[in-house]
Design brief:
single chain; 24% helix; globular; eight-stranded mixed β-sheet; alpha+beta
Length: 200
């Protein structure tokens, strides 16, 4: 489907252009759009590289209303959030790995098919986050402290960042032996942008 204008998409682009000084991102889009029968709900995922801090920044397009107002809720755009993920780069990565894009699409499927609205400090059991050897087995949703909460022509929304949890951390949160807010507060001291390191 072709749209003459996409105010919601432009709103996201404008925010990212300011953060990344008009860096051209790598963009991943499904071969068949969701509204034409495709299985992936997101219109796409853009990836920026933060050289100074050594991470890939993934941002979704499609959980907010991008092209036109479709819901009756004038306060929020779509589901009220887009997802982000910050992956620490290493010497083995020549470019942005594709697996986080697939992970974000899978989370979007949960939102669309189960009508589950995520918010800050919600958790999600993921199993192994990647096929590579990693201790990350769970996800915690937090506010992306670089992008925050924003407004578009179709309503307000926030950028919810996914932060990877080890099995011990996830189980501790589930069993209430670890306070999720305290965990993030302590992590923030050593890792201010809350970048996920799959090798930790």
């Amino acid at each position: 489907m072709n749209f003459e204008s996409s105010p919601g998409w432009d709103a996201i682009d404008n925010i990212l252009n300011k953060v990344y000084s008009n860096q051209k991102p790598e963009h991943f889009a499904p071969e068949t759009p969701f509204n034409l029968g495709g299985s992936d709900p997101l219109d796409g995922v853009s990836v920026y590289y933060d050289k100074e801090n050594g991470f890939y920044h993934y941002i979704t397009y499609g959980l907010t209303e991008l092209h036109q107002k479709e819901s009756d809720n004038d306060e929020y755009s779509g589901w009220g959030f887009e997802l982000t993920f910050k992956l620490k780069s290493n010497s083995k990565m020549n470019n942005a790995p594709k697996w986080p894009v697939n992970m974000l699409q899978e989370i979007a499927k949960i939102v669309f098919h189960e009508e589950l609205e995520f918010d800050e400090f919600h958790t999600l059991s993921s199993g192994p986050i990647t096929s590579e050897k990693s201790s990350i087995n769970g996800l915690l949703f937090i506010l992306d402290n670089q992008l925050g909460e924003r407004d578009s022509e179709y309503g307000k929304f926030k950028f919810l960042q996914i932060f990877g949890l080890t099995e011990k951390e996830f189980d501790g949160i589930t069993n209430k032996t670890i306070d999720r807010r305290d965990l993030i507060k302590k992590e923030h001291v050593k890792n201010p942008l809350l970048i996920t390191d799959i090798n930790k």
